[in-house]
Amino acid sequence: MFGILDTLEEWIRNLLISIITSNLTNLFDDVNTKVGTIATEVGQTPQGWNSGIFNMVKSLSDNVIVPIAGLIITFVLCYELITAITEKNNMHDVDTFIFFKYVFKAFVAVYLLSHTFDITMAVFDVAQTVVNHAGGLITDNTSIDITTTIASMQTEMESMELGGLVQLTLETSIISLTLKIMSILITVILYGRMIEIYLTVSVAPIPFATMTNREWGTIGTNYFKSLLALGFQGFFMMVCVAIYAVLVNAMTISSDIHMALFSIAAYTVILCLSLLKTSSLARSIFGAH
Fold first, then answer.
1. Which terminus of the chain is more solvent-facing, meaning fewer CB atoms within 10 Å of its CB: N or C?
2. CB-based burial label for 138 (10 Å; 0-12, 13-18, 19+)
3. Within 13 Å, how many C-alpha atoms sit on residue 198's CB side?
4. pLDDT in tens, 173-198
């Protein structure tokens, strides 16, 4: 009788350990996958992320926004000429040099407007170069060694009581589900950033049309700061991922499996919150508003 019960208990123990091992493998696979996904997603330029969306946005900008920007730059240049002539003692001290200066400003304004997309993409190319260099360092040094980690945890699980294994099975199942939910939220954050980039780029000709004017130029200056903030937001995301992965790596070698699992879940929630904060942090640093 006791032999049957011992056999049944041993079968249940092996079943629970198998379930826990499977949950842990999926859990750490999700962590590694998400770290790699974030590095890949934020390391792409608007053209590379989705060429179809980029071409559509560029077409809308060229055919819808550029004509409006043309009207704005016409108004700005007319306002600039009137201001340049009348600000010198009501036209009594007009210097011919102001006309050369006006022609130069007009040339720069038209040049900026006609090369808006080239300049905008150059900003993202510079930012993404920084992100890609950071991504190469991060993904090489923060990947969790699943085989070694599972082996060390399995040794501890074999010495646990049946009740502890049942508890650990529930914990790993809940935390694995939590990480999957967090993974979806992180994907939403990543896609949201790219959509924001496309929306910002789509109206680029309008702020660029104002950049050469002293009064209206703050619109273009702030827009350029916003481009820098969006570009370098990807770098801040990479730093968040690096910190997260290092913390998770440290917890996987913990002697307390329960604490390690809940710490991983907590760090994943913190990662999501940190990724959400990267937008406001980047705008704050670059003075964009």
1. N
2. buried
3. 22
4. 888 788 788 778 888 888 888 999 99
Q: Are 205 and 113 in contact, with CB atoms under 8 Å apart?
A: yes
pTM for this entry: 0.77
C-alpha 262/C-alpha 251 separation (Å) is: 10
Q: How many CB atoms lie within 10 A of CB 195?
A: 12
Q: Which residues contact 178 (CB under 8 A, 6 or more apart)?
A: 265, 268
CA–CA distance, 41 with 194 (Å, rounded to integer): 9
pLDDT tens for 62-75 read: 888 888 888 888 88
Q: Quote the CA–CA distance of 58 and 65 in Å, as a whole number.
A: 10
Contact 53, 45 (CB under 8 A): no
Strands (E), the chain: none
> In degrees, to the nearest 5, what angle opens at C-alpha 11 toward C-alphas 7 and 17?
140
CA distance 208 to 92: 33
The two tokens of residue 275 are: 């990724």
CA distance 204 to 200: 7
Let me know: does 175 contact 265? Beta carbons within 8 Å. Answer: yes
Given a cut of 70, whether residue 91 has pLDDT beyond it is no
**From the DSSP assignment, how many helices (H) and strands (E) are in the chain?**
11, 0
CA 251 to chain centre: 25
